[in-house]
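fwd from M.: "can u put these together and see what the complex looks like"

so here's what she sent:
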Amino acid sequence: MAHGSGGKAMAQLIDELFLQAFSNPWLEQMNDQACFTLPPGRVVMATDSHVISPLFFPGGDIGSLSVHGTVNDVAMSGAVPKYLSAGFILEEGFPLADLQRIVQSMARAAEEAGVAIVTGDTKVVERGKGDGCFINTTGIGVLVEQLNLSGNRVQPGDKIILSGTLGDHGVAIMSLREGLTFETTIASDSQSLHDLVAAMVAEVPEINCMRDPTRGGLAATLNEIAQSSHVGVTIYEATIPVKPQVSAACEFLGLDPLYVANEGKLVAFCPADKAEQLLAVMRKHSKGQEAAIIGEVTADPLKFVQMETVFGGRRMVDWISAEQLPRIC
Amino acid sequence: MMSSSVNTFLIKVSGLVQGVGFRPFIWRLARAMRLNGIVFNDSEGVTIYLNADEATVERFAQRLGDELPPLARIDRTSTQTVAFVSYDTFEIASSQQGEVSTGCAPDAATCSECRNELFDSSDRRYRYPFINCTNCGPRLSIIRQIPYDREFTTMVAFQQCSECTAEYNDPADRRFHAQPNACKTCGPQVWLEDKLGNRIAAKDAFICLNEAIRAGRIVAIKGLGGFHLACDATNPASVTALRIGKHRPDKAFALMVRDIGVLSRYAQVNTRVSELITGNSAPVVLLDPQPACDRPIADNIAPGQYQLGFMLPYTPVHHLLLEHIDVPLVMTSGNRSGSPQAISNDDAREQLADIADLFLFHDRPIQNRVDDSVVRDIAGRMHYLRRARGYAPASLPLPPGFAKAPDLVALGGELKNTLCLLQSGRAIITQHLGDLEDARTYDQYQATLDLYRNLYQFESDLFVCDLHPEYLSGKFGEQLAGQGKTLLKVQHHHAHLASCLGENAYPIDGKPVLGICLDGTGFGLDETLWGGEFLFGNYQQIRRLAHLQPFPLVGGVKAITEPWRCLYAQLKQALPLEDLQPYQALFPQLASPVCLTFDRMIEKGLSTPMTSSAGRLFDAVAAALGCHADAISYEGQAAIELESLAHQGDPRTPPYVFSITDNLIDPAPFWQALLEDLRLGQRTKADMALAFHKGFSDVLVDMVNQLRTQEDFTTIVLSGGVMQNAILFNALLASLEAQGFDVLTHQQLPANDAGLSFGQALIGAARVLSA
Ligand SMILES: [Fe+3]
Ligand SMILES: [Mg+2]
Ligand SMILES: [Zn+2]
Ligand SMILES: [Zn+2]
């Protein structure tokens, strides 16, 4: 990968690579923009820049992650994701073979998610001014009129449903990045949740809110919701699914899975009388087989997030600003 | 001769003089001396006007001091003559304008007069479990808001009968304005339930409880500031059942014995301790057990500890419970592991149903949770390990120079939290609240702040918190700052130091002192975790002159709950890897493949915060000597058991040697010697533990002497949780005093994090005063 005038040639090469991998009518028109008509409904849009080290990891790579991340952000509104844009920032000297792998992985992820990557851009920056490869994606989706999901709609009494195990992505990335080996390899859970969401809203349109607990983990997501909906949250430790190997790695590293990032899980807040019905739909879906009701929303002016421990104690689950620094004196 | 010299005298008394029966006491005293005048509360305490001659006033003042009501404490009195006013009688006036709220007094143990009435079959309160008077009984535990009047306490539900009302209104009566005054006819009642919530009909609930306890059962008792779980402490099977039920495998249980006679059969009691334990605060006191007694206390009461915590009955309920029991009872907080003790009947039914067989309930609600206080006598100095019932919310006077300190609230630490309000030249420290990560405790923390703001009519919007970015108290402070309040932040060990300075009345403009803060882990000015510090400074500022060699906490908080991680990090730092090889057989953990991951984490700085903590060094040594290397089940366990091990060591055993390089204490030579001793197996582990304590004390003193050549100080402050280690504390204190230093130690507040709020408050005030 070269920069400057040679870089121009490279960028062209890359455009061809994209054209081939993402092949769709919009790209093939070779315009600087994509023009399309959306089905009826409200338009939902989200953007996310993806920066991750290492670029390739068990369960995915930066390419698939950049599709999953934005598709999920769109889908959490209840919308059907339709189109993506992709912007690449590549560091001079980045191996073409790696780029090919990434692009192909993006293409597969997009196909699986039912979205078309309809426009894109590439910049090559000087060596040392980037970290190999950064990808920004922006997504557009369509939301039918009767759905109304939002972080400020959560009500006391709502049940909280988690779609699967916590911490897989964060632990997988960390162990690979830091060269830690555990008895079994832990794979990232990176996946798009559009189809799970579609099944959920089709069955229970009354869902009040959905979020994907990415950076900061479930703890950050629950605190965000508590703040924006002015409610409290109680979760039950015994009900929270965590893979044994993830749990063991967290124990080892002194991390709490509640604070570890996920890339293929969602948490839904829905009226209590619909919770069992929703749970059943989720469990029938391949991406929600381990779904569980993990807690409920409470009326609490202090907006506390608390966890009932396996011994019946109650623990504060607050925001954590940086690393999990010990508080014990 | 008389009439000519009769004047009007104005006597002002300040201290703990409101809400403790002080005005009726003055009334009775004046009447007894046939003096006329008036007494009332005002903003500074109590004011008395008296018609008398000079000599009589002197006698009055003398008797005032000598016959003080048990709960009162006088800090200052002043007497002067004023323009003559003639009084026809002596009266108690209602409280004056501008009266500062004195909040309420601490809960007090049943006084001897009430105890005598309790067991006097001719008394109308014979065997009434809620007997009390002005000199004893509940206060903080029942108050909802000020003023401390019956209607604002949980006694509001109980309308006094005519006899009780008469007592309540008679200044000559011991029950004059005793807010919880009650009797069998009009007051609270007890009843028994089984674990399913069925009431048990019993002629005498206490006989029933005694039978259950003798049969080895566990009973739940609603006490003063919370529920207790009780069982026969000489029955190991009962104690085991209690441990299983509470999910509390090792942490010591407190004991209650009927009286000082029974106590002296089980523990070694000196006069200091006996005064303390029979006094109106009636704390749990840690004592050396008697070597032999006929019904020995079960071994599993306090595994791995050489002292046991004892208290005496402090409510009529306890007196009735223990009347016919002459062995110690376990009397531990009524909760499941990790939760604070239950205070409501419903919470107890829910939390304790799987633990207790029989419940003693009553219908006087507990408004505020107040735990038992815990005290340890080390070398004649009282060390408060937990300050709650009987002490809070008694205020502390501020040191010289703080008279104009601004009103403020210090938010305390994370564990063993207390709050401190600075107001009108005094510090009001809340009862021990506990660990804020526990949600019920955090709820109580918020409620306590509201309660105290109300009790003291506290207005200020100035707050002080710890520097640690993750403390819940600090995050709460940030929230307040977001609402426009002013927030100051104070370094953890600076607060420890200032807390000790403050309780020793060290003046605000005193020379800088050397603080030796030995602690767990607190957030340092350089953003690493401190805990083995030599700080030079005063209330305003500190400089870190020296400290322990920092080492990584492998896995952050996990290194605190799994002490062998500290051992691994210490050894790795002390010895080159190849030198460690011969000792690997000593520690099976060191050969484990996880150590390779540890190495990697340390190398990458992943989840391995650096700390100079003394507490963690003690953990590492404990792990090396086989005390709970793999995991601890309660905070501080490894270090506590290490002290017990050292206690069995031969006093003549020579100390280990540490080295000092560039104001850093390096434990490497100690580790090399310890490993060699372990390998040879010729020295007992107890001797090794003791040699560590002695050597560590020696190197601290060496460091002090080195620092003396660099800075000018004569006063040394000892603070931080590690100072609760009696062996280290004694050795350090003795050496430093022998060298002529003026050594300040904690004798009123805990050396641990419960003392932080007071230190934070003083530092915050000093900053404002010097700005
Ligand atoms: Fe501390
Ligand atoms: Mg996102
Ligand atoms: Zn009394
Ligand atoms: Zn009565």
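replying to her w this: Residues 5-22 of chain A form the longest helix (18 residues).
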